[in-house]
């Protein structure tokens, strides 16, 4: 689906939350963390879109922005979130694959972030 042009995406690094807003309300989020030692990688854990905003391209816009932020910072993305992983497979030109050892380390570090489960 096409991306919703009225969506504004903001990054709250302290909370580990990328948020999409539509009409001034939260429409979707990506929960993430920064791998240690920082900046090891940005690790996407969950992508959620509120039911009333499904099918509008918000999840794709969030993941695209997440990869763009990582590219600007010069770090890889580890998409542990199933949606983000599928999106990355469909968009390899925008979502370079993370090295397998980085993925394993991200999975290990996720255990240290129970608030993201």
TrEMBL record:
Residues 101-117 have a biased composition (Basic and acidic residues). Gene3D superfamilies: 3.40.630.30. Coiled coil: none annotated. It comes from the Bacteria. One of its GO terms (molecular function) is acyltransferase activity, transferring groups other than amino-acyl groups. Residues 1-117, 10-99 form the N-acetyltransferase domain. Keywords: Transferase. Residues 91-117 are annotated as: Disordered. PANTHER family: BSR4717 PROTEIN, PROTEIN NATD1. This is N-acetyltransferase. The lineage of its organism: Bacteria, Bacillati, Actinomycetota, Actinomycetes, Kitasatosporales.
């Amino acid at each position: 689906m096409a991306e919703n042009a009225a969506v504004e995406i903001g990054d709250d690094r302290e909370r580990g939350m990328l948020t999409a807003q539509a009409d001034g309300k939260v429409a979707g989020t990506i929960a993430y963390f920064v791998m240690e030692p920082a900046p090891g990688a940005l690790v996407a854990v969950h992508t959620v879109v509120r039911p009333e905003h499904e099918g509008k391209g918000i999840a794709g816009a969030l993941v695209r922005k997440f990869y763009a932020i990582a590219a600007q910072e010069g770090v890889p993305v580890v998409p542990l979130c199933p949606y983000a992983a599928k999106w990355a497979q469909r968009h390899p030109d925008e979502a370079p694959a993370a090295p397998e050892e980085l993925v394993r380390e991200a999975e290990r570090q996720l255990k240290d972030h129970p608030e993201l489960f």
